[in-house]
Model the fold of this input.
Amino acid sequence: MKYFVKIAFILLLIFSIGSATRYVHNTGVVQLRVDDYAYGNFVEFRYSGYDSYDLLWRSFIAIKFGGWVTPYYGRANDDGVLYTSNFTQFQPLELEEIWNHDTIISPDSSDTTIDSTLAMAKSHYAFGIDAIGLRIDQWVESSTGLDSFIIVKWIISTPETLEDGNILVMFDFDVPDFDYDNDQVFTVPGHLAAGVRADTINPRSAGFAWLSHCDSCFLVNTIDWFRHGRNIDSLVKLMSGRFWEGSTYCPSPPCPPWLDDAAGDVGIGVVIHVPRIVPEKPETLKFAFIAADYPSGVIETVERLDTMKIEEKTIPKKQQLSLKVFPNPFNKALWINVPDECTRLDIIDGSGKVVGQLAPTGKHILWHPKGLPSGTYFIRAITNNGIFVVKAIYLK
Done:
């Protein structure tokens, strides 16, 4: 137990923002806030070596596939008025932990402060595009050992094939948050990673490391993103690597997607070109938030993460033995979280009649109650570990 006390300080805060939930992952060196009200966003990342100032103005995901008129995105800034997202929540935020912990509730305005507590944890929620059923499962993992990084994983699944897509993951670090207009960018040679240094005198830094295999990815950066972030055309340019076109840095194309000497209010990110996503093969995006006293510390952490070859699950997985549905009540479609070792899923109406069956082909199944009337239905999962039933209310 002494060993765990020494290496942990890892999580936690839980409190409500309306109907939303908030957790803070804390390794004792860095902490990342997660919410399920700002879909596809992160707005707070702190580093103990910098008096715990918030180093993140916004970080978000944006997606655009062939045939789409505009991208889907989540964009936020410190809970401010610029927050916007056209994603839909599919599943509320939940927490897995290895050891018991004491819940600490300590909100501080729009920022978050927490007491130290013992836990090793993973948080999860899901959001996506309701119109086509595209789903993004977000996992955030807190490892032990007073690490200077926190790992995020987005798993994108779709019920229909999508082609010719670009996915942007954007990081707008302000090091620190009150001094944002003199930051300097740097890259990590040989790695899909980048960082932001406070200024020419102060070396404190924050950055990211891309941990997923990627055949067609490239770094992008911006300047004055506070102004450009409100504009969808600027977002589309950034996603296609054309952000610098027409600027004083590059009056006429072709222009590089990354400018090495960008300084000021800068943002950094990575664009992933996805030729195709098919239903049977989800796309996994995995990266780490990093902070350090010097750019060399960020670079060393990137190299360490690469050397460690972190496994898909740094925290041992608990077997999923429960059957869950969301939203409930529902009026168009119902997401079903399938228990492990499930062999059959039945849809049963209020009279006890089986009105449908679903093939348990994945962890999450989207059910459309076509041709069925409004009312109470029961979802029954038959597994090797037992039979599970949950009630769902269908409202047309």
Remarks:
- Confidence is low (pLDDT under 50) at residues 1-19, 99-119, 310-319.
